[in-house]
Amino acid sequence: GENVEQHPSTLSVQEGDSAVIKCTYSDSASNYFPWYKQELGKRPQLIIDIRSNVGEKKDQRIAVTLNKTAKHFSLHITETQPEDSAVYFCAATSGSARQLTFGSGTQLTVLP
Amino acid sequence: NAGVTQTPKFQVLKTGQSMTLQCAQDMNHEYMSWYRQDPGMGLRLIHYSVGAGITDQGEVPNGYNVSRSTTEDFPLRLLSAAPSQTSVYFCASTGVDEQYFGPGTRLTVT
């Protein structure tokens, strides 16, 4: 089955700086890659996603890039703000029926 | 439109007890799933369903049962609770692609 590895596990940045979180996946058939943000005590919420036929997608301060050849994808957050502090999870499809395999998460802390 | 709802929010069980975690969605989604979330391990798939009457195992199914008698409801049953099942449980419902998560159930087994 699919295996998703996520790095780093913790990341601290100064407010206004950029943050990058990277994930690799194992199943070359995976074709959908979402990113979720989870605030403390809350449910995961989708912030951006990308399909395998696209190399990059941007939504305001958030962007995701995908390299299918290398089987890795990354989340980029620019001009970070304290409210960006949360745990971020990457995921990839595994097999059919929209099953997602999640990375282990990155605790992002934005320091004021 | 409530989205995905879960009950209870918190539960404490003794080893060996059984219980059912409830999950319901009002988005008419066919695909629903249950995850458990443990520190440092992300979300792991327990069971999933692609429609009423159809369920299948995910990555960590042992100790859990599910059923799907209606499109709306997807309960998760713990047959004989063990301390290793202490976790936060999330139910999710999937539309075209996006998975919508419920608010979670924090379960402690003593």
Ordered list of secondary-structure elements with their pairings:
The complex is a heterodimer of chains A (112) and B (110).
Chain A: E1 4-7, E2 10-14, E3 19-25, E4 32-38, E5 45-51, E6 56-59, E7 62-67, E8 72-77, E9 86-93, E10 100-102, E11 106-111
Parallel strand pairs in A: 2-11
Antiparallel strand pairs in A: 1-3, 3-8, 4-5, 4-9, 6-7, 7-8, 9-10, 9-11
Chain B: E1 4-7, E2 10-13, E3 19-25, E4 31-37, E5 43-51, E6 54-57, E7 64-66, E8 76-78, E9 87-94, E10 99-101, E11 105-109
Parallel strand pairs in B: 2-11
Antiparallel strand pairs in B: 1-3, 3-8, 4-5, 4-9, 5-6, 7-8, 9-10, 9-11
Describe this structure in words.
- The complex is a heterodimer of chains A (112) and B (110).
- With 112 residues, chain A is mostly beta strands.
- In chain A, 0% of the residues lie in helices and 56% in strands.
- Chain A has strands at 4-7, 10-14, 19-25, 32-38, 45-51, 56-59, 62-67, 72-77, 86-93, 100-102, 106-111.
- In chain A, strands 2, 4, 5, 9, 10 and 11 form a 6-stranded mixed sheet that branches.
- Chain A starts with a strand and ends with a strand.
- The relative contact order of chain A is 0.34.
- The model of chain A has no long low-confidence stretch (mean pLDDT 93).
- Chain B has 110 residues and is mainly beta.
- In chain B, 0% of the residues lie in helices and 52% in strands.
- Chain B has no helices and 11 strands.
- In chain B, the strands form 2 sheets. In chain B, strands 2, 4, 5, 6, 9, 10 and 11 form a 7-stranded mixed sheet that branches. In chain B, strands 1-3-8-7 form a 4-stranded antiparallel sheet, with no helix packed on it.
- The model of chain B has no long low-confidence stretch (mean pLDDT 94).
- Chain A binds chain B through residues 1, 6, 9, 32, 34, 42-46, 49, 89, 97-105, and chain B through 31, 33, 35, 40-45, 48, 50, 56, 58-59, 90, 94, 97-99, 101-104.
Short structural description:
Chain A is mostly beta strands. Chain A has no helices and eleven strands. The model of chain A has no long low-confidence stretch (mean pLDDT 93).
